[in-house]
Design goal:
The chain is an all-alpha fold. It has a single domain, classed as Orthogonal Bundle (Ammonium transporter fold), CATH 1.10.3430. It is about 60% helix and about 0% strand.
Amino acid sequence: MSEKQDTDIKEKETVKAPALQAAVSPHLSNTSFTTRRMMIDVLIALVPVVGMAVYIFQWYAVKQLLICLVSCLAAEAIFIKMRGKAFTLTDCSAAITGIILGLSLPGPAPWYIGFIASFVAIGIGKVIYGGLGMNIFNPAMVGRAFVMIAFAGSMAASGYLDAQSTVDAITQATPLDLFKQAGTTTPLMALFVGTTNGSLGEISAIACLVGGLFLCLRRTASWEIPAGVLVAVAVLGGISDLVTPDSKWTVIHHIFGGALLFGAFYIATDPVTSPLAPIGKFIFGLGTGAIIMLLRIFSGYPEGVMFAVLFMNALTPLINHWTIPKPFGAVKEEAEA
């Protein structure tokens, strides 16, 4: 083999495969819009939610968030090392998964809940599919669904703290549980501000709105998804109000209560597991909101955000197929005479 042929073979071996990105037209490139920048935007948007969780739940929130954050980072490092892939912790995606997972859990839950959920979220929800950008389900919701099924008793948001706790909010049942079990309605102001019990990220509607609007303005999150969720909830909640006018739990309670706003802005908007086209994103949001309301109204389970998001994640390829946009610049063919 000649020296020139040997050089050509080495050059071919060192050529990297092209980076393929799935997106709808027009394909306009913005070099500043990187994965790391998107993740940093999410971290910034999570500040008001984390701040409110720490203010209400104090040490319980700090402990749960730290367990999930450290466990997700450790799981990412271990699984990536096992697969022989390049170091990926610097893209902040594992950190985002850890924080969102921690916010989706009740603060007083035992330490092993966050630990197990984190390894399931990274290992089964993300790495097993090939890593960042390849997963079909939201990793944080995969982890939460696993511990919700495996450790249902330990996942209860109340019952861990005695009456002497300095944080009165977490000694009571969640607003949705109170209404489902006893018909007790939580004041709207308490739901809006966040002086109630529940998972860490779902208690304050105003915190979720502030962070969520930041994500939409930065175009890190697609506004069509939370808009679709809110439209579906408003329509079905309005119908419920008309059918049961005596109910004190109104459509506004549905919007402000539970994990609806947290799920609509921070979980359903995951760009990897949601549709590509704007109309597809809106349909995705509509479906998510509709499933949430159906579960809240007709099932024995008071909340439905996690199941709604995972179900719509499974339908994302089908929605993408239904909402293929017209190629940019294409001219419609004239019908034959």
